[in-house]
Write a structure and sequence with these properties.
By secondary structure, this protein is mainly α. Helices cover 50% and strands 3% of the residues. The protein has a two-stranded antiparallel sheet with strand order 1-2.
Length: 139
């Protein structure tokens, strides 16, 4: 008696249902990832409203402090008035000033070839990325 072996063309791919389920899950997850940011988009008006609320909270909490004074950090707050006075005294003769003078001299001192640090290229982090408008390329 001869066994009949079914031809592979006539049957489904083995494990096809499992693969179909995985593919469906991946597609649904991809659609969610792509669609989620659009659903959570914040308008410019909402951003400005949030900034105004944030700033008004601190302006109400510390009425004597203007927004510009907040750039001084904690020294702007009234409860740190003594610390601010010390900081202002320190800034009259900053302790780093002599080192800055030494650094300026070193920067201007010529090398053996006659060039100085001013002649050197900037560090890569200071010049990259560069946009070339002629080729519309960002490198």
């Amino acid at each position: 008696m001869e066994r009949s072996i079914p031809h592979p063309v006539g049957r489904a791919f083995p494990g096809g249902d499992k693969m179909k389920n995985i593919l469906t899950a991946v597609l649904v997850a991809g659609a969610f990832v792509i669609g989620a940011p659009a659903a959570n988009a914040i308008s410019e008006a909402e951003i400005k409203k949030d900034i105004k609320e944030f700033q008004s909270f601190f302006l109400k909490r510390f009425p004597g402090v203007t927004l510009a004074e907040y750039s001084d950090g904690v020294n702007a707050l009234p409860q740190y008035a003594e610390r601010r006075a010390n900081w202002e005294l320190l800034m009259e003769f900053p302790p780093y000033e002599t080192e800055m003078d030494k650094a300026a001299e070193e920067w201007a001192k010529p090398f053996a070839n006659g060039k100085t640090f001013d002649d050197c290229d900037l560090a890569a982090g200071n010049v990259y990325p560069v946009y070339d408008a002629a080729t519309d390329d960002l490198r």
